[in-house]
Design goal:
Oligomer: single chain
Structural class: mainly alpha
Shape: elongated
Largest sheet: none
Length: about 190
Amino acid sequence: MAISEQELGVFRAIGENDKRAIESVYSDNYGLIQHFVITNNGSEDDARDVFQEAMMVLYEKSRSPEFELTCQIRTYLYSVSRRLWLKKLQQARRIESHVEGLEKLVPVEEDLEEHDKLNAQYLTMRTAMGKIGEPCKSLIEAFYVHRKNMHEIASFFGYTNADNAKNQKYKCLMRLKKLFFAQYKHN
């Protein structure tokens, strides 16, 4: 999967110590690392430590002119965090130190493949959402992103009642589904 210009821009901004870029990467990725560490014999404190170390590695790499980012920042942070955590587990002797046991416990390659697959689907959905047009885009976002109920949506969009809003949402979802799968098949 190619890296977007936006992703490269964020990577470069990290190297320039851009606070917004660093905070954005932190908020977008910490949950994934926290889940990984906690589900593999760690605590929230362990997750914070590992993620902080991984962010430092990312920062150092972003400042190195020789380093070329070849994957998404999320994938890179996951990989670095995984290695750091498994190394700490080995040192603490919480699990067996031979590699075969680690791979059975944490099938990371499958996780990364699944992550890449989900990320591709997310990008396809984002493209479809960009093509769906108004008012469908706003209606779908109001329901799924902002968690508005049908009465609130009906009032905001000027539908006569919640049932009409629900019918319109259904039509928009069918349209989005059609755009998504057309794009998905194309990719």
